[in-house]
Amino acid sequence: MVKIIDIHCHLTFDEYDSDREQVIEDSRQVLKAVVTSGVEPEDGKDALELAELHRDFVFVSLGLHPIHVVDMTDHEIGDYQEFISTNRRNIVSIGEIGLDYHWVRDPLKIKRTKEIFVEFLELAKELDLPVVLHLRGTTGGEAIEAGLKLVSDNDIRKVVFHCFTGKPQLAELICKEGYYVSLPASIVRSKTMKKVAKRIPLSYLFTETDAPYLSPDNEEKRNVPQNVKVVYEEIARQKKSDVKTVEEAIEGNFGRVFGVELKSD
Ligand SMILES: [Zn+2]
Questions:
Q1: Ligand 1 center to residue 209 CA distance, Å?
Q2: pTM value?
Q3: Could you give the domains of the chain?
Q4: Å from CA of 252 to ligand 1 middle
Q5: How far is the CA of 38 from the centre of ligand 1 (A)?
Q6: Buried b (16+ CB within 10 A) or exposed e, 103-116
Q7: How many angstroms is it from 26 CA to the middle of ligand 1?
Q8: Which of 256, 78, 50, 82 is nearest to 159 (CA)?
Q9: Tell me: the pLDDT tens digits for 145-174?
Q10: Of 6, 184, 204, 239, which cross-links 225 as Cys (Cβ 3.0–4.6 Å)?
């Protein structure tokens, strides 16, 4: 029985323009569900259309990536938030949203991304949806720490730290708050991520690819959702457990956090 899940990727991106349907068909052989994440309004529409064609397999998260926040006016952002509310029934989470100190460095722009981030947190609360966070720093875990403070100050309950790159101690702090950490397929190349997989209880972990990015093979190669398999294998290895146990735990977490009960085969 196939039970693996990719909670975060971008099936709408240009990298799949030539063979998108084939990629989805191939991923169906290995996966039970995949969540594609809209990063801005146009992309969000594309994601909803794609999910419509692949019901009960492709699920949608809608958010505004911090790198897109700085290109948009208040009015445009307001319209997009309205659009998200209207599509409440067709989405499973709000994200990715957050902070990106790697691409956004100007203090005024950082301030703006923070304000809009908080607006989306409030929207998630209002719609009773979990949030999926993109928190990228320049050197260490500063964006993750800032994000953690904002979600806990705003009393957000269901939170997933997507593509977690921080230290194991920071992952432990996150779990203490009752939040979740999601590990990507690039875990095969990261000692720190392996340590996180070892230290964090299965009941606080998620698995993702962030495809087309973060291929397990190398940075340049296009990634695909079925590569999430390596995350399951690595978690099982680190926990000296088996893949089946990991599959059951992640599926349980998916149901609890995203509110999706997957049909059994
Ligand atoms: Zn992403």
A1: 9
A2: 0.96
A3: 4-258 (3.20.20.140)
A4: 22
A5: 9
A6: ebeeeeebebbbeb
A7: 20
A8: 256
A9: 999 999 999 999 999 999 999 999 999 999
A10: 6
